[in-house]
Specification:
The protein has 3 domains: 158 residues, FAD/NAD(P)-binding domain; 139 residues, FAD/NAD(P)-binding domain; 56 residues, no CATH class. It contains 13 helices and 16 strands.
Length: 385
């Protein structure tokens, strides 16, 4: 696994549903920790807890990326139908010959593989996406956020316990930047600093240990003592990039299909990248089972998923502003309270947008549209109060 460039995964209802469909949820449960809400750290060291929902099951789960990746790879190999090849980079796609060219980084040579169908799940820089779009794409948006991220570590206590509340996603919102931390099974927290790549307060500007210590002393003082390896992590771990991808089409005839980040990379601030990718898998199986051909199945999958993935991409961007800035606003907390109150009165008619995304199977597109109506309703309540 790549060390030092991970953001813990936040597993919620859509991902859980998909893992249950393939019989892996019981194995995954051993790797996850519940997070019942956000623990908001202000600049003076005060902490405010904000629950995600009102019911016992309305929690999300922290899962270490490397543990889940390993579990899924092993489960795939156990079927006897999957062979995993590491250190192979796809360098060319030839649809005329139905052939992929890979560069074997260990042997230092290229090899060609003939395919019948190829499923491209090769991330935001997908070679398969580029090949499909070269056949006549009508949309190709690769939009960098301009902010990056750095993996850091909050150590466990000397006794191996948690140094912060363990059943919460911790957020240090500071306007244009923020830090988050998700719990791990060993008592540590995987912390992530999100910040502009350039500017006065940015990864570019904080380039010495003195500047780093001053920055954390000013903005994240309560976490500074919990991070004994801060300087080492900050300067040794790479700075990750964040990007949104929207494109059309997702498929080429009956030959190729992209899904997951290859088709619709999103920023991580709604905790839905993995969950959305797993939901892709469930939808794809359903579409292929109903289709008379691969091409028909690919077309129906794209038509079904494209509006929803566009919606969650927009919601994830909006949630970044919420997490790093809006959570400090009085009206934001008041709206959350009003939304919970309306949900308790009318549980069949008012489900907060966040809950629709995280704890229900409501299509992302409808969660986005309904959420816009809810926002107008909540604004009216806030004006009255």
């Amino acid at each position: 696994m790549d060390s030092g460039r991970s953001i813990n995964l936040a597993l919620s209802s859509r991902g859980i549903f998909a893992l249950e469909k393939v019989g892996l949820m019981e194995r995954v449960r051993k790797c996850m920790l519940p997070m019942r809400g956000r623990a908001l750290h202000d600049s003076l060291g005060g902490i405010t807890f904000q629950a995600y929902g009102q019911r016992d099951h309305e929690v999300i789960y922290s899962v270490a990326r490397c543990q889940l990746n390993t579990l899924l790879l092993e489960a795939a190999e156990e079927t006897g139908k999957v062979h995993v090849h590491f250190h192979h980079t796809c360098t060319r796609v030839d649809f005329c010959k139905r052939q992929l060219t890979f560069y074997d980084e260990v042997q230092g040579r290229s090899r060609c593989v003939v395919f019948t169908q190829v499923m491209g799940t090769d991330g935001s820089g997908s070679r398969i996406r580029k090949a499909i779009l070269a056949q006549g794409g009508t949309q190709n948006v690769e939009k960098p956020l301009g902010h990056g991220y750095k993996e850091l570590l909050i150590a466990p206590t000397s006794g191996g316990g948690f140094s912060l509340q363990s059943d919460a996603l911790h957020i240090w919102p500071r306007g244009e930047f923020m830090q988050i931390a998700l719990p791990n099974l060993d008592g540590s927290f995987t912390a992530t600093l999100f910040m502009p790549q350039q500017g006065e307060q940015s990864f570019q500007a904080i380039d010495t240990e003195t500047k780093l210590q001053q920055f954390y002393g000013e903005h994240f003082r309560d976490s500074l003592d919990l991070m004994p390896d801060l300087a080492q992590d900050y300067f040794n771990n790479p700075t990750g990039n964040l990007m949104t991808v929207k494109c059309v089409p997702w498929h080429y005839q009956d030959q190729a299909l992209i899904l997951g980040d290859a088709a619709h990379a999103i920023v991580p601030f709604h905790g839905q990248g993995m969950n959305c990718g797993f939901e892709d898998c469930v939808a794809l199986v359903d579409c292929l089972e109903k289709a008379a051909s691969w091409d028909e199945g690919f077309q129906s999958f794209e038509a079904l998923r494209k509006p929803n993935t566009d919606a969650i991409a927009d919601l994830a961007l909006a949630n970044y502003v919420e997490m790093r800035s809006q959570v400090r606003d009085r009206d934001f907390h008041l709206k959350k309270q009003i939304a919970f109150y309306l949900e308790s009165l009318y549980p069949d008619f008012f489900i907060p947008q966040y809950s629709m995304v995280m704890f229900h199977q409501t299509p992302y597109y409808w969660a986005q549209q309904i959420g816009e109506i809810q926002e107008r309703i909540l604004d009216l309540w806030v004006d009255v109060l």
